[in-house]
Specification:
Udp-n-acetylmuramoylalanyl-d-glutamate--2,6- Diaminopimelate Ligase, Chain: A, domain 1; Alpha-Beta Plaits; elongated; 5-stranded mixed β-sheet; 18 helices; 5-stranded antiparallel β-sheet; Beta-Lactamase; about 50% helix; alpha+beta
């Protein structure tokens, strides 16, 4: 007995208890599924009928001409499997109008020419359905045990796919963002290509919870792909499915796919964690690059596993992810577990984006170096977009799944030389420091996008403090003594290009209050403070002062 089969009206008519029955109407509906059988003699049947119910009746409702068609339409609208009517007890025939209605809706109407024992029918059909359900559950239990054994023995997905194919008896499809796909057995090349295209367009970009969600891809009238995504950390890394006929009953197949998708997710995670045991050479390479022990570019690239290019060039990105635990009292084990979760997710996302990478975890910081070969369709800008997307995903993951953990990320300039990783990491630190100390720069992750802060971070703090005091000291002193917020007023006035209306709105003060403060600014700074050279100095001093104050707030 096939586990994925369902029993139809045609199957039921072949049972011995239906030996004296005949099909009066609805020949085209014999494919309807039968899920249960029960007796109903009342006229308002809708509340008591579920889809796939086969109804038994003596035809009491036919004795009155009123409501006959309404009764039948209730069964049709409730998606009942069919209606069986007994002659000789209450009625002796079916009106022609009901025959026509049943044929119109392809609704099986079965009659028994002589009285029958309904209890024998229900016992027979229920035993058939219950035994089949029992076999299905036993099959699923056996599949679950064998699936667990195979996943414990190996991380090889092919063994899992073969087992699924054995139980489903359907062509199996496995598509991954990180490795080559598999088809068991192989499909026609055009069908495989269509599945790859559908996966990249419709599945790979999905953001889901860790629970599996079924997806359908209808290829043609005879073939459809029932697919479950393999989800880890809310990200789709692969998908597993089977090719079925669009009209196939799939409840059992869905359960098989659900079990398999969860097993595939566990294998994916385990594979990623196993890779962490193989990172010693990566750590040594990053350490050598950071300490300047490798001078030859070719040597560095060879150790990273990059092929030597005859034409074109690589873009290298160096960065740092800092994991901040904001909850006091977080234990060391919990911290280490969080660090490993972030590291595994980062490695998986880099692999998913086909970026060759080096990773090193040290305390609460992850050092990163990734490489992308430039081509017609791949550029420096695209590499930055990939890294931005990866960073945003990790931040969302930490915000959703890790308790009071914040991720800070910075990337240095993208370069064509791997041996300059040290410079990129130093710049990455500067990005993180500025993002933490300057509120408008909070979401900046790249050194190239720091603007004027590149120059400010290059200056000694003592020089910046002196510069800020030289140009803003008189305002700071006045604010301490009179609380007029002149430094804040100057910043708002300059930020709004001298617009008094916009500055007043930003400060939430009355226009006249702003005029009074501007008069005081002119008195303290001189009437020429809005001239270009002096205005530039004031703007630089404001930026430097905000960065210094933000840094002091972070350190405290």
């Amino acid at each position: 007995m096939r586990n994925d089969r369902v029993f139809t009206v045609r199957d039921i008519l072949e049972r011995p208890v239906f030996g004296r029955a005949r099909l009066a109407a609805g020949q085209e509906g014999l494919h309807r599924q039968v899920g249960w059988v029960h007796v109903l003699e009342i006229t308002n049947v809708s509340p008591f009928v579920s889809p796939h119910d086969l109804i038994l009746s003596t035809g009491l409702w036919l004795q009155s001409e009123d409501g006959r068609e309404a009764y039948l339409m209730q069964l049709i609208h409730r998606e009942a499997a069919g209606l069986c009517v007994e002659f000789g007890t209450s009625i002796d025939g079916i009106p022609e109008a009901l025959i026509e209605l049943a044929n119109e809706y392809q609704f099986p109407l079965i009659v028994f020419e002589q009285p029958v024992r309904f209890v024998e029918i229900t016992q027979d059909i229920h035993s058939l359905l219950i035994n089949h359900q029992h076999q299905l559950l036993k099959s699923l239990e056996t599949y679950s045990r064998e699936l667990q054994q195979r996943t414990l023995q190996s991380t090889d997905m092919s063994a899992v796919l073969e087992l699924l194919h054995l139980y489903a008896s359907k062509p199996i499809v496995y598509i991954s963002s990180m490795e080559a796909g598999s088809f068991v057995p192989g499909l026609a090349p055009e069908m495989e290509q269509a599945i790859y295209s559908w996966y990249s367009q419709e599945v790979e970009q999905l953001n889901l919870n860790d629970s599996a969600t079924e997806l359908w891809f209808h290829m043609d009238e005879e073939h459809a792909l029932l697919c479950y995504p393999v989800v880890c950390f809310g990200q789709v890394f692969s998908a597993i499915g089977m090719v079925v006929h669009p009209a196939t009953a799939v409840e059992y197949l869905k359960l098989l796919l659900d079990y398999t998708a969860k097993a595939a997710a566990a294998l994916t995670l385990r594979s990623q964690f196993l890779e962490e045991k193989m990172v010693r050479s990566q750590n040594e390479l990053i350490q050598d690059l950071m300490n300047g022990h490798i001078q030859q570019e070719e040597q560095a690239r060879t150790r990273m596993g990059l092929r030597l290019l005859v034409k074109g060039q690589y873009w290298f990105a160096g960065g740092v992810l800092e994991i901040e635990h904001r909850m006091k009292g977080t234990g060391r084990e919990r911290m280490e577990a969080n660090h490993q979760d972030v590291l595994v997710l980062l490695r998986s996302l880099l692999k998913k984006n086909h970026l060759t990478s080096l990773l090193m975890l040290k305390n609460n910081q992850i050092y990163l170096c990734c490489a992308k070969e430039e081509s017609r369709t791949s550029s420096r800008q695209q590499l930055m977009q990939m890294l931005e997307g990866i960073t945003q995903h990790i931040k969302r993951f930490a915000g959703t799944n890790l308790k009071q953990v914040e991720i800070h990320a910075g990337f240095g300039k993208l370069r064509n030389q791997l041996t300059r990783l040290k410079d990129s990491l130093q710049e990455a630190y500067q990005v993180i420091e500025v993002a933490r100390s300057v509120k408008p720069m909070k979401h900046v992750h790249f050194y190239d996008r720091m603007g004027i802060y590149q120059m400010l971070k290059a200056m000694p703090t003592s020089l910046l403090q002196t510069f800020a005091m030289d140009h803003l000291g008189v305002l700071m002193e006045h604010d301490r003594n009179h609380q007029l917020r002149l430094v804040e007023t100057l910043h708002a006035y300059l930020s709004n290009f001298g617009s008094k209306r916009d500055a007043a709105a930003q400060l939430f003060v009355h226009r006249q209050t702003l005029y009074n403060r501007l008069e005081k600014l002119e008195e303290l700074l001189g009437p020429d403070y809005m001239q270009q050279d002096k205005r530039l100095c004031l703007e630089m001093a404001l930026l430097a002062n905000a960065m210094i104050e933000g840094g002091e707030g972070q350190s405290s």
